[in-house]
Specification:
Pfam family, one: L_HMGIC_fpl
CATH class of one domain: Mainly Alpha
Keywords: Fertilization, Membrane, Transmembrane, Transmembrane helix
CATH architecture of one domain: Up-down Bundle
Strand content: 5-15%
Subcellular location: Membrane
Helix content: 40-55%
Radius of gyration: 23 Å
InterPro entries: LHFPL (IPR019372)
CATH topology of one domain: Butyryl-CoA Dehydrogenase, subunit A, domain 3
Family: Belongs to the LHFP family.
Structural class: alpha+beta
Number of helices: 6
Number of strands: 9
Largest sheet: 5 strands, antiparallel
């Protein structure tokens, strides 16, 4: 018989697992990993609404995505174009970024799987006599290690030609040059920290769903068990 068991700790772990997976996925797909040096508008570019020069803009560069201004759209309100600069994996700008993409993708796949499974932990708390919370916590720890490897390797690719075109000639491995880090990089770091927090907190979720109070309510014949 299926018992639906909901506790504060198990529900918090589930929500955190979902949030972490989405945060890492959004960061990975974003172009805002590097914010390039300002590109001043030329004297010929005049805003047709104000009659003044357009503000300088900052192109952004991700692991395989980029946003930049398109010259034939310079008078449009939407004067930037975002899309992948690499049509296939081999065209990613740096070997380090290729490794970063692999490690991040592996970590995100694991996190998304755990997030999906976490929704069903209200009904299923064990599989093959193993606590599903402990298994998911172990997988989240492994995913966190993949994410750390990806984030460590990513700055090593700042010396590639693509990054130099955005960050200037002084950009090199682990040196930003004229660029700055965008929100996607910080989101990936924050998501990695939360991944390990989720891995640790999964043990608390397992304790909460197997407590004496839960067992007492199961023995009383209750199918829906909600505990603080």
């Amino acid at each position: 018989m299926c018992h639906v068991i909901v506790t504060c700790r198990s529900m918090l772990w589930t929500l955190l697992s979902i949030v972490v997976a989405f945060a890492e996925l959004i960061a990975f797909m974003s172009a805002d990993w590097l914010i390039g040096k300002a590109k001043p508008s030329s004297s010929e570019e005049v805003d047709n609404r104000t009659g003044g020069s357009q503000e300088p803009y900052h192109p952004t560069l991700g692991i395989y995505w980029r946003c930049t201004r398109i010259s034939h759209m310079q008078f449009s309100r939407r004067d930037t174009l975002c899309g992948p600069y690499a049509e296939n994996f081999n065209e990613i700008a740096s070997g380090f970024w290729q490794a970063t993409a692999i490690f991040l993708a592996m970590g995100i796949m694991i996190l998304c799987t755990v997030a999906f499974v976490s929704v069903f932990t209200m009904c299923v708390q064990s599989i093959m006599k193993k606590s599903i919370f402990n298994v998911c916590g172990l997988l989240q720890g492994i995913a966190g290690l993949f994410l750390i490897l990806g984030l460590i390797l990513y700055p090593a690719g700042w010396g590639c030609q693509k990054a130099i075109s955005y960050c200037g000639p002084y950009a090199s491995a682990y040196k930003l040059g004229d660029c700055s880090l965008g929100w996607a990089f910080y989101t990936a770091i924050g998501g990695t920290v939360l991944t390990f927090i989720c891995a640790v907190f999964s043990a608390q979720a397992e304790i909460a769903t197997s407590s004496d109070k839960v067992q007492e309510e199961i023995e009383e014949g209750k199918n829906l068990i909600c505990l603080l």
